[in-house]
C-alpha cells in the first residue's frame, strides 16, 4: 500500500471517541476518499462526524452510522448500506471494544457482562470482517488492510478482567489465523495486522496502573505506530516492546514462577485494582 491512505475507503468501528476517533482524524488528514464511522453513541458520533467533515473541507467523505456491534443483525444491515453507498472498504479497523473490570469473575452480572464483552470484543470483529472480506479479496489489484485492535491482556491472564482477557485472546487467535488463511489461499492483496497494546490513556482504562516496563501509553504514539504498521502490512504490533518480553517469559518460566516474577513482581496482577473506567 502507498505511504498514506489518500483516496482510500476506510471503515472504523468505535469511532466516535478515543482511539477510533484518532484513527479517523489521521485518515482525514491524509486525504482518504471516504471514512465511515461506526459507533453506538449517537450523540458523540454526530459530533465527531460533523467535526471531521468540516476538517476534511470536501476532500474526504465522512459519514457516520449508529451501530450496536453487540447486535449481529445490525452489523449485516449496516454493512449492506456501506457497500451500497460507498463500496467495499480498502481499510477496515476493528477498534471498538468494551471492558467491565475491577471485579472478580464470580462477582460479575450473572453472565450478562461476559456475553456482552464477548459479542463486542471477539464476535463483532469476525462478523464485520466476514461482511467485507469477499469484496476485498475480489479486488485483487488493490491493496487492502484489516486491522484488529486486541490487547496485551489477551496474551496472559490478568485478575479483575477475566472476560475482557478472554475476548481479546479469542480476537488474537482469530486475527492471526485469518492472516495465515489469506496467505495460504493466495489472497496476498489483503493484509491483516493484529495489535496488542498495554493500557492507553484514553479514559477507557482510567484508574489502571501500568506495570513495570509497561507504562500507560499515549494515544498519539499508539496511533502513529499502528498506522505505519498497517500501511506496511505488518502482521503484529506489540506495544510497548515489553509485551513481547512478557510473552517470552510466559513460555519459558513455570507458571507459578511467572506469577511471582511477572504477575506480582512487575505488578501486572495488581494493575486493575484502582480501575474505574469512563464515568
Automatic annotation (TrEMBL):
Pfam family, one: adh_short
Keyword Oxidoreductase: yes
UniProt entry keywords in alphabetical sequence: Oxidoreductase
Gene Ontology molecular function, alphabetical: oxidoreductase activity, acting on the CH-OH group of donors, NAD or NADP as acceptor
SUPFAM superfamilies recorded: NAD(P)-binding Rossmann-fold domains
InterPro entries in UniProt: NAD(P)-bd_dom_sf, Sc_DH/Rdtase_CS, SDR_fam
Gene3D superfamilies named among the record's database cross-references: NAD(P)-binding Rossmann-like Domain (3.40.50.720)
Domain of life: Bacteria
Membrane-spanning intervals of the chain: none
Family: Belongs to the short-chain dehydrogenases/reductases (SDR) family.
Name listed for the protein in its UniProt record: SDR family NAD(P)-dependent oxidoreductase
